[in-house]
Amino acid sequence: MSSIVTSNADAALRRESATNTNASGYPRAIDNGAGELLTFLGVRHDADGRQLLELENRVQPGSGPPMHVHYLQEESLTVQEGRMGYCVAGGPDCFAGPGEMVTFARGQMHRFWNAGNGELRCSGWVSPPANLEYVLTEAFASMRRGRGRPNPFDVAYLLARYRTEFAQGDLPAPVRVVVFPILRAVGRLLGQDRRYANAPPPIRR
């Protein structure tokens, strides 16, 4: 019975993911102004019927996303050029070079970064797409507006709205529990949430 429930849940997630990607606008690149250029290449289905959002990233030395988790998605990266450092929560730093693939399971807290002296270039995919494209697009835009640093309201809003899908692992509890709710309340009073008027609904686990 449990396997049937899981299959039905995954099927529902695939249906919701299909409405949360920019199917007509690929390839599409976003730049966070802090050393990361990410290109969404498109959505395809693998031999098992899984929906994959394919992407390519270019990361400058020392740059990379913070510790984070995708509760609903598996993520896979293959190094095309350069040296990638990566780790999962509680684990040691590991490294991958050209031709090597690193896969992070859904629910696995992780991060990666450019551990070399030149540009890191990876190809990969995320499955299912869910709201990843939207969230990263908004996060990167916030960082560009802040010249490499995201607006605290944007972080607080996106992590709260999409908390069933994503979380950031390096935030102290007082920031998440006390500071972020205040930021969201003040931001709404100032109308900062208007830019998210057309935000897609979060996907429930």
Short characterization:
The chain has about 200 residues and is of the alpha+beta class. It is about 30% helix and about 30% strand.
What amount of the residues lies in strands? 25-35%
Q: Give the overall shape, derived from the CA principal axes.
A: globular
Total strand segments: 11
Number of helical segments? 4
Distance between the termini: 18 Å
CATH topology of the largest domain: Jelly Rolls
Judged by helices, strands and strand pairing, the structural class is alpha+beta
CATH superfamily of the largest domain: Jelly Rolls
**Uncertain stretches:** 1-9
Strand order of the largest sheet: 1-2-3-10-5-8
Taken in chain order, the helices and strands follow as HEEEEEEEEEEHHEH
The description of the largest β-sheet is:
6 strands, antiparallel
State the helicity in percent bands. 25-40%
3D architecture notes:
The chain has 205 residues and is of the alpha+beta class. The chain has two domains: 2-130, Jelly Rolls; 133-196, no CATH class. Helices cover 28% and strands 30% of the residues. It has four helices and eleven strands, in the order αββββββββββααβα. The strands form three sheets. It has a six-stranded antiparallel sheet, covered by helices on one side. Strands 7-6-9 form a three-stranded antiparallel sheet, with no helix packed on it. A two-stranded antiparallel sheet has the order 4-11. Helix 3 crosses helix 4. The protein is globular and about 50 Å long. The two termini are 18 Å apart. The model is unreliable at 1-9 (pLDDT under 50).
